[in-house]
């Protein structure tokens, strides 16, 4: 039976790698979303080698019109299958500490990293509930954990991921019929993670897929890419 995935922020980085790995499985129907499909040439090129089905849909996670428009398109693609895995991956960060945050940066980061996953999950919930697996993955970070000491840096980003973790918990307890997890992909070599990061994108993503496809028992938890439970 086919498994449907919708991933946000697929033009590059972890979202791109996730789509690449998912589209290499014949059982997967992958909806790769990004804000500028015309400029996402690497993502467009993945369609030629895809073994599973790959659809590219415009979705700027900070634009409500774009979110609502995407649902119409996605519903026509997935129909009664719904969405098995809704992967809120798109995210942004900023160099700052708690005493030099600019309000516009904090608001911009909260809008992308918290408001967007909240609204997208809400708008896509009927499609998630229609599916067999019913999983929402909120891509978080150990920077969002108070229990993992990451020091004073990336303050706005850390605040946003802590809020995303609480969103995850609230979604999980509000809807016991679905699975919702917060997932730390690990420090990975992407534009965000930088060249010194510990993991290659393919390493993080291969393990993320293992974790999310066996997450039914983990709703309301904060896990890392290798399945370890992280402190909030
Ligand atoms: P990148 O900066 O490499 O990629 C970010 C992706 O998000 C891009 O595809 C970007 O699209 C997309 N994006 C940003 N804003 C929007 C928007 N408004 N609408 C749609 N897409 C958007 O980051 P990573 O791939 O490294 O990060 C992916 C996720 O993993 C993030 O949530 C991040 O916080 C998290 N994470 C990453 C870690 C790492 O070490 N890499 C560690 C911990 C967590 P565009 O090309 O259009 O800008």
UniProtKB/TrEMBL annotation:
Superkingdom of this protein's organism: Eukaryota
InterPro entries: NAD(P)-bd_dom_sf, SDR_enzymes, SDR_fam
Any one Gene Ontology molecular-function term assigned to this protein's record: oxidoreductase activity, acting on the CH-OH group of donors, NAD or NADP as acceptor
SUPFAM superfamilies: NAD(P)-binding Rossmann-fold domains (SSF51735)
Record-stated family: Belongs to the short-chain dehydrogenases/reductases (SDR) family.
Protein name: NAD(P)-binding protein
Organism annotation: Wolfiporia cocos (strain MD-104)
């Amino acid at each position: 039976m086919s498994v449907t995935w919708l991933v946000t922020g697929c033009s590059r980085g972890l979202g791109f790698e996730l789509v690449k790995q998912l589209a290499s499985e014949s059982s997967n129907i992958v909806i790769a979303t990004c804000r500028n499909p015309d400029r996402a040439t690497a993502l467009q090129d993945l369609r030629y080698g895809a073994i599973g089905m790959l659809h590219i849909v415009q979705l700027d996670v900070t634009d409500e019109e774009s979110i609502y428009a995407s649902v119409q398109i996605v519903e026509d693609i997935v129909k009664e299958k719904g969405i098995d895995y809704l992967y809120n991956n798109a995210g942004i960060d900023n160099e700052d500490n708690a005493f030099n945050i600019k309000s516009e940066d904090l608001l911009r980061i909260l809008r992308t990293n918290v408001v967007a996953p909240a609204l997208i999950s809400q708008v896509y919930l009927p499609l998630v509930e229609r599916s067999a697996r019913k999983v929402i993955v909120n891509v978080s970070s150990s920077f969002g954990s108070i229990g993992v000491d990451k020091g004073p840096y990336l303050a706005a980003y850390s605040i946003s991921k802590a809020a995303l973790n609480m969103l995850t918990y609230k979604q999980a307890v509000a809807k016991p019929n679905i699975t919702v997890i917060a997932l730390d992909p690990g420090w990975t070599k992407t534009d965000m993670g930088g060249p010194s990061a510990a993991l290659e994108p393919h390493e993080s993503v291969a393990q993320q897929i293992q974790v999310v496809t066996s997450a039914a028992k983990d709703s309301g938890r904060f896990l890392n890419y290798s399945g370890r439970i992280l402190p909030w």
